């Protein structure tokens, strides 16, 4: 059995399922956070959107949406927020990475 190609729903189908934000036609409601976010199917498209944005942004992969979102939070801010959680749960230091694909 091979991999199935991901089918992207039409805007009408997304509205019927409640996946599209009522505030905007081009945002998707992320099932993980329940907030409207832009969904990019590839990393290159998300990086291109960050390039032309007014505020500094970086892309990250969302497992629930199977695509990329953008955030204005830097990696250092994300790691500083995540470090106490990792130390509390696993009692180990957080490994800081440079690769954007390794960051969830």
Treating each run of at least 4 consecutive H or I residues as one helix, how many helices? 3
Number of strands: 4
Structural class: alpha+beta
* Principal-axis shape: globular
**Average pLDDT, to the nearest integer?**
76
Estimate the strand proportion: 5-15%
Helix content: 25-40%
Separation, N- and C-terminal Cα atoms:
28 Å
Radius of gyration: 16 Å
- Note the main sheet: 2 strands, antiparallel
- Low-confidence spans: pLDDT under 50, at least 5 residues? none
Please state how the strands of the largest beta sheet are arranged side by side.
1-2
State the order of secondary-structure elements, H for helix, E for strand. HEEHEEH
Task: Give the arrangement of secondary structure elements.
Layout: H1 11-17, E1 28-29, E2 36-37, H2 43-51, E3 58-62, E4 67-71, H3 75-90
Antiparallel strand pairs: 1-2, 3-4
Short description:
It contains three helices and four strands; from the N terminus they run H-E-E-H-E-E-H. With 104 residues, it is an alpha+beta fold.
Structural notes for this entry:
The protein has three helices and four strands, in the order H-E-E-H-E-E-H. By secondary structure, it is α+β, with helices and mostly antiparallel strands. The strands form two sheets. It has a two-stranded antiparallel sheet with strand order 1-2. The mean pLDDT is 76.
């Amino acid at each position: 059995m091979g991999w199935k190609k991901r089918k992207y729903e039409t805007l009408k189908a997304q509205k019927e399922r409640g996946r599209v934000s009522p505030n905007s036609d081009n945002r998707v409601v992320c099932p993980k956070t329940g907030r409207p976010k832009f969904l990019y199917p590839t990393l290159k498209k998300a990086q291109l959107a960050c390039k032309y944005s007014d505020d500094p942004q970086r892309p990250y992969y969302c497992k629930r949406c199977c695509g990329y979102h953008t955030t204005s939070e830097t990696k250092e801010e994300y790691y500083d927020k995540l470090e106490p959680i990792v130390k509390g749960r696993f009692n180990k230091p957080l490994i800081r990475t440079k690769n954007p694909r390794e960051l969830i």
